[in-house]
Amino acid sequence: MSETPSTVDDGPSPLPLAAPGTPQLTIRAIITGMLLGGIMSLSNLYIALRTGWSFGVTITAGILAFAIFTALGSVGLVKRHFGILENNAMQSVASAAGYMTGGGTVAAIPALMMLTGEPMPWFIMLPWVMAIALLGVVVAVPMKRQMINHERLRFPSGIAAAETLKSLHASAAEGLDKAKALFIGGLIGGSVAFFRDATFKWIPFKWPDHLPIPGLKIAGLPAEKFTIGVDCGALMIGAGAIMGFRVAWSQLLGAFLCWFIAAPWAYEQGIITDTKYKAMVGWTVWGGSSLLLTSGLLAFFMQWKTVARAFKSLSSGFGGGGDVDPAEAVEVPMRWFLYGVAILGPLVIGLQWAFFGIAPWLGLIAVLMSFFIAVVASRATGETDTTPTGALGKLTQLTFGLLDRGNVTTNLMTANAGAGVSIHAADLLTDLKSGWLLGANPRQQFFAQFFGVTAGALFVVPAYRILVPNVDAIGNDRFPAPGAQTWKNVAEMLTGGLDSLHPTAQWAMLIGGLVGITLVLLERALPRYKKFIPSAMGLGLAFTFHGWMAISMFIGATAALILQKSAPEKAERYIVPVSSGLIAGESLVGILLAVLIILGLMPQG
């Protein structure tokens, strides 16, 4: 295969492997990674249920761990220096934990819950999300040697994590500065959530959920009725700052089209009979879901060269030997992949049958598909830093819509398996890229993922059951669950057919689908003008959550853009830590307050 800039890493060169005995996956690295990753997985769960987005935790965890051990060392509580390779191993643990929301807790599981009206018990959810995550870790083994060692795919987030660790451990002052920024952001976000959501009588004032736009009316009603206003949470500001200006202005455009034009028109026509969010989004989501579906699938199929390279390189990954991999002693042996698949494959098939009534032959097809989906998703991540789990999940839904027509449980949970396996395979390869650049031991990073998956599941599953105890807690003002809305609608469409939808919803699907296709083709035809072309993801998601969320995320993205233009060095140093702090602070305090209500330590609002 020829080495071209599009497929071969042109970033930093790898360092020689660290000397044997260099501390890497130490007990303190494991414990720190499990705690930090588990806590940040709660933040990802909260924000994904609200906005449909989730954010990587690797760099944030690295900054926090560095600051924690530097502080402990300065007061003599830690004697041995927390080295860069220990931090890298800790990041592998934390990253695996943070991505446990990819196991279905923000998409397939709440979608199934909305369709059946029944919550998924924790004793089903816990082994299910762990099994598909561990299978994802295992199937990454044959891909590492080919994609990282030989082809040297970029995996940009892996490069960023490695470079961040280098800068932190080269300059203690910079690392502590970033940690302070993250802490300040967390304090602000947490304070906003507390004064908004806490119901103690002694609280002197209540922070508003959102602010209406005075005097603005739509369809004869206050604009607030159509979710137009400004969200007052810090979380949305931080999310907008991280996601970037193009996606944010695309969401703002989508919010205008949805909540200023489409929803008011449907209300005036009597198609929507209530201005409650659940009633409105039950209609608006069809156009947004169709846009997301067609744009995701077309973008995926237009990367046919990536798909071809993925399967072409698969045999090389299984071969794994020769001059491609001189450091065989520290590589994960191929027999571990075979053992893992032999154990976890039947386990996932068995869980699908026992928990969801999915026939074993369909479960086998789902597991086989998940392996090939993981190959494609991992290569796409390596080349573009984007893991197309949404599009690949919909592809699985379409497949099983034909194989087991009318069964929404089969449709959702087989797709859940494929998406979960692919996101964890891509996550491990991204971590291995970082370790490869730092001279880390890949076997130790492989084991790190197992600790991370365990921690993430133990944090995320109880938190999900606390936040979403019943079907009424999802798809509402607090948790719109945009990702789940899309998965739910695809399953409904494949089950009931288009005839079951209101004619205007069918037209909305057609228009949304055509817009999604057009946006992808425009991006491909006019790459120089991409920043002026709306993001299909941002535009489509705006039809699945509140307008005031899109407005606030746009404010955050605009503030970040201004800082990047006026003070690029400060932007580079502070945007990610401060924004991550805002997100983590608000989401973690929100979860804490929910726990206090359950324990009876705070009155119900």
- Beta-strand residue percentage: under 5%
User: What strand order characterises the main sheet?
Assistant: 1-4
- Count of beta strands: 4
Rg computed from alpha carbons, rounded to a whole number of angstroms: 23 Å
The whole-number mean of residue pLDDT values reads: 87
| Structural class by secondary-structure content | mainly alpha
Helix/strand order, N-terminal first? HHHHHHHHEEEEHHHHHHHHHHHHHH
Question: What is the general shape?
Answer: globular
Total count of helical runs of at least 4 residues:
22
Cα-to-Cα separation, first versus last residue: 62 Å
Q: List low-confidence stretches.
A: 1-8, 320-325
Helix content: over 70%
